[in-house]
Amino acid sequence: MAFVPTVDADKCEGCEECVDVCPVDVFEMVDKKSVPVNAEECLGCESCIEVCPADAITVEET
Predict the structure, then answer these.
(1) What does the pLDDT look like over 25-49, one tens digit per residue?
(2) Domain total of the chain
(3) Following CA atoms 43, 21, 59, 11 in sequence, which dihedral angle do they give, to the nearest 10 degrees?
């Protein structure tokens, strides 16, 4: 079972909350937007979804 985090760049406000809360450093800021650069590390905890004020993040189970 794997998880795939996705960030909607149009919605992302660049607050970095997901970068700060992720326990396995999935996200990094690129051009003031969050990008899941280490998506394969995602644990599916959905902490990023909970802290995102713009509702820009989804995590799908594959």
Answers:
(1) 999 999 999 999 999 999 999 999 9
(2) 1
(3) -160
